[in-house]
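A quick word before the example. In earlier lectures we treated sequence and structure as two separate objects. From today on, think of them as two lines of the same record. Here is SCP2 sterol-binding domain-containing protein written that way.
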Amino acid sequence: MTKFEEHPTVKWWRAQATKNQATSTVALNSEVLRSLCLEAGADDVGFVEIDRPAIADQLSDILRAFPRTKTLISFVCRMNRENIRTPVRSAANIEFHANYDHANEVARSIVRTLEQTGVHGMVPGASFPMEMDQFPGKVWVVSHKPVAVAAGLGHMGIHRLVIHPKFGNFIALGTILIDAEVTEYTHPIDYNPCVECKLCVAACPVGAIGSDGHFNFSACYTHNYREFMSGFTDWAETIADSKNAYSYRQKVNDSESASMWQSLSFNAQYKAAYCMAACPAGEDVIAPFLSDRKAFIQEVVKPLQDKTETIYVVPGSDAETYVPRRFPHKTIKQVSSGIRSKSIQGFLFGLPLLFQRNQSEGLNAVYHFTFTGSESRQATVIIQNKTLQVQEGHIGRANLSITADSKTWLAFLAKEKNLILALLQGKIRFRGSIKLLQAFGKCFPA
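And the structure line, produced from the sequence above:
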């Protein structure tokens, strides 16, 4: 057997080591790197250093995925706009998934080329996140949107999508982590391409986007992502709860079953994304809107508004109230959001996402939570004037104080534990009016 040091591969590497070491600390030329990315198929690109304050909240996740990260390459790939604008959702979904696949191939091509120069990179993925062992927590490695904003590729519109100054919101975002610095980094552009026309507000079938800029995450998530993650869980539990095929068909019609099969077979299908379809912002996009606004609304927005379709809502949610008032021709179907917190941290993090501000109307109260047992935590939740604040520790004077064993509280939220029994066992205790607990629950229908 050949001795380790005499092995051909080892000898070759030793011969290259000195030469590679001399060039390993040289920063990549930003213009050359930009050209490489564009030649690989990106439509625009920017560079962000790992210690940029704007992405500090992602630092630990990024370094856990690729500890040698020094630079984030952020890039965009344009979509075919008319495929997104059509009310034909199959065409829109083909465009979404095809462009995500394209963005991933662009990233992989860039990394392969860089590797030949001694620079190593990691591709977190431009398509749907896959770290499902962490669900319902953060299931993605990199949040592409804030990275793209930091890199100067646009700003977030009121619909919470990144709008590129030239291509509008018809883009897929990608990020690459590399272990080299670049000679020049890019920075946010000095204006927001969003023209605040509010067409996204008008087009959204569940009222998730408020004209005042408020965003109802729960409403968007429950409908648009019906065949993803939690929606799939809700569907699977519907099957489990059905006594037989007839019972199942009373809850899920043939079209819905076929649609779920389509998502399982040909990538998960988005139900709406009308906010993206209606957006006229961006230099390449805005001409029809500015030329004839009425015609633009008639041709792009109204077909989405007029579409006859099933809208998925959580019972007791703001969306359930909004749909029949705004779109009486659309059919409402009550479903569970499927979101269940696995931890007290997840419960507290999820409160702003699940909060239904219109259900809180008239409620002005301070709640003190004290969690014991496997997770020890204190928190204050303030609901007033249809707004929500979640703070660490006990702040101010509470109108209702709740002390709960953490596991019991999570089981209660998941409807696996009876509240009365938990109160009798002393696992959950409260001081104050029980009506405030009921009012609290109304703000977070599941």
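Notice the following. The longest strand covers residues 71-78. We will return to this example when we discuss secondary structure assignment.
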